[in-house]
Design goal:
The chain is an alpha+beta fold and 498 residues long. Helix content is 41%, strand content 18%. This is Reverse transcriptase domain-containing protein.
Length: 498
């Protein structure tokens, strides 16, 4: 593991990967700030306002719960400690998880005692409720605070308790969340829904039916979760009162600071949003989003696509929601229901980034004075989906992105100081995932197969590509042999047409 990290660090240094540096930013009136203190104050002002609690919604706490769930076992603490990823930046206390893992059984005993105390009293150490936020620039003007996303560093010791609490919650979450939600769930991912939507478009063309999609974008969904509404939703979903009380007390009085290139801001209170960097946040948000969909009545709605006797009208990955219907009127009705229920719990749609796509005729919509734009294609969870279902556009795009990666690696791949097995390993790790992302949903022409083979041969001067169809596997595996007999597996489905 250590050698792998060192290898990729050398690659980043050799490539000269861009590292964003935070310079001047603008205040709320659009005036450039250049002084360190002014920049720090602006970041604190922005984040405080972003996470400010709604004063009209008081927190009605039930107090300490006496009907407790089963005690935490030492083996749970040991499992949680071993499952925490190493080589991660530590939180405000500066204590890395590696220290606990070195101490082994002694650390397990101490952490078990602390976790058990929290379990019984439902009170968390204040250091475990603190986060260090680091702004990372997104697309757009890097002088606007709103064009940054923040990552949060939390105490590594707290992650042990959070892992245990997540495991206790998971059985309830799995029971409540439907298959349509693929976000943060074991055995599911973006590629599943990419394949689903491609299959739906292809089947609609086969049966000569029009299909209508709405790709919903929320404005800072995770940061706008209302805490009091979240506790009510958890209770409705059947989460035990003891676990809800632990979560409520974790969120009560939590603090954060923003670490900038000009220093760190003062600590301030967080009043809304799920905790960043916390393993519990994906589970909590999925339950929050499920509440919206249930109240919108999507499961009972007649609008949608009929598949094997089942009505499907949405696909979800965390906050990214795609609505589907067989007519424009039905789709708009679904969107308005979701919009209404989302606003009831504090989530707002970003209409400018919400798009509609259809295989039939469609016009732009006016919602709340803003226009929902119709598009002929959409980048759907990293894959280009077109209204006609033609995947050749996506294949060209993936090959272009793959060549871009290879161009960045050019100095390394052409170096005589680096062994061929190392180069093979780099290509497999950095080029193949880009070129073959979402490939299981492709229908590939023979000419496109040759282009893919040529692209994947080029970085290592592969001499031949030998197709092999493994027994019992639905995928074609192409094994490329270089002059050094190094094998490179490439996988895509057997949907090949001339």
């Amino acid at each position: 593991m250590g050698k792998t990290r060192d290898l990729f660090k050398i690659i980043r240094d050799t490539k000269g990967t861009f590292h964003a540096e935070m310079g001047s930013i603008k205040d709320r009136n659009g005036v450039d700030l250049t002084e360190a203190e002014d920049i720090k104050k602006r970041w604190q002002e922005y984040t405080e306002e972003l996470y400010k609690k709604d004063l009209h919604d008081p927190d009605n706490h039930d107090g300490v719960i006496t009907d407790l769930e089963p005690d935490i076992l030492e083996c749970e603490v040991k499992w949680a400690l071993e499952s925490i990823t190493m080589n991660k930046a530590s939180g405000g206390d500066g204590i890395p998880v590696e220290l606990f893992q070195i101490l082994k059984d002694d650390a397990v005993k101490v952490l078990h005692s602390i976790c058990q105390q929290i379990w019984k009293t439902q009170q968390w150490p204040q250091d475990w409720k603190r986060s260090v936020c680091i702004p990372i620039p997104k697309k757009g003007n890097d002088k606007e605070c709103s064009n940054y996303r923040t990552i949060a560093l939390i105490s590594h010791a707290s992650k042990v308790m959070l892992k245990i609490l997540q495991a206790r919650l998971q059985q309830y979450v799995n029971h409540e969340i439907p298959d349509l939600q693929a976000g943060f769930r074991k055995g599911r991912g973006t590629r599943d829904h990419i394949a689903n939507i491609c299959w739906i478009i292809k089947k609609a063309r086969e049966f000569q039916k029009n299909i209508y999609f709405c790709f919903i974008d929320y404005a800072k969904a995770f940061d706008c979760v209302d805490h009091n509404k979240l506790w009510k939703i958890l209770k409705e979903m059947g989460i035990p009162n003891h676990l809800i009380c632990l979560l409520r007390n974790l969120y009560a009085g939590q603090e954060a600071t923003v670490r900038t290139g000009h220093g760190t801001t003062d600590w301030f209170e967080i009043g809304k949003g799920v905790r960043q960097g916390c393993t519990l946040s994906p589970c909590l948000f999925n339950l929050y989003a499920e509440h919206i969909m249930r109240n919108a009545g999507l499961e009972e709605a007649q609008a949608g696509i009929k598949i094997a006797g089942r009505n499907i009208n949405n696909l979800r990955y965390a906050d990214d929601t795609t609505l589907m219907a067989e007519s424009e009127e039905e789709l708009k009705s679904l969107l308005m229901k979701v919009k209404e229920e989302s606003e009831k719990v504090g989530l707002k749609l970003n209409i400018q980034k919400t798009k509609i796509m259809a295989s039939g005729p469609i016009t732009s919509w006016e919602i709340a004075g803003e226009t929902v734009e119709p598009v002929s294609y959409f980048i759907f969870w990293g894959s280009k989906i077109t209204a006609d279902g033609d995947c050749s556009h996506e294949i060209k795009r993936c090959l272009l992105l793959g060549r871009k990666v290879m161009t960045n690696l050019d100095r390394i791949l052409k170096s005589r100081d680096i062994t061929l097995p190392t180069k093979v390993r780099l290509v497999k790790a950095m080029v193949f995932p880009v070129v073959m992302y979402g490939c299981k949903s492709w229908t590939v022409k023979k000419a496109e197969c040759r282009r893919i083979e040529k692209t994947l041969e080029s970085p290592l001067d592969c001499k031949e590509i030998q197709p092999v169809h493994p027994k019992g596997d639905q995928s074609w595996v192409f094994t490329g042999r270089t002059c050094a007999e190094a094998e490179i597996p490439i996988i895509w489905p057997p949907h090949v047409k001339s």
